[in-house]
Design brief:
The protein has 107 residues and is an alpha+beta fold. It has helices at 16-32, 65-73, 81-87, 103-106, and strands at residues 5-13, 35-42, 56-62, 88-97. A four-stranded antiparallel β-sheet has the order 2-3-1-4. α1 packs antiparallel against α3. The longest helix has 17 residues, at 16-32.
Length: 107
């Protein structure tokens, strides 16, 4: 059985027009493919750690890895994804399994 996953998106906007072209359609398409935006954020400050800060955070919960892949690989969205690529810089896109607690990690 497929489990939900989270996609952590951290990035800078490098071209507002390109990113606007992406964001105008992306929320609807994410939902159509089994995703739900959980959080949007603007960088505030580094509390700990040494990664280079990114201006934007988007956290998306996907119904499954297959749902995420269907969004990424849908041929009907071939014109959409290039707007994200052209509109952002220093993009980090990490996938995390959804956990109910930390027991699987602490074993």
């Amino acid at each position: 059985m497929s489990q939900p996953i989270y996609a952590l998106n951290l990035f800078n906007v490098s071209n507002k027009d390109e990113y606007l072209a992406y964001s105008r359609r992306s929320a609807k398409e994410v939902a159509t493919h089994g995703g739900r935006v959980v959080a949007l954020g603007k960088f505030r400050e580094a509390a700990a750690g040494s990664i280079e800060p990114r201006a934007v955070l988007i956290l998306v919960e996907w119904a499954s890895k297959e749902a995420f892949d269907s969004y990424c690989n849908d041929p009907n969205l071939a014109d959409l994804h290039p707007h994200r690529v052209k509109g952002t810089g220093k993009y980090i896109w990490h996938l995390f399994d959804k956990l109910e607690d930390l027991r699987p990690i602490l074993k």
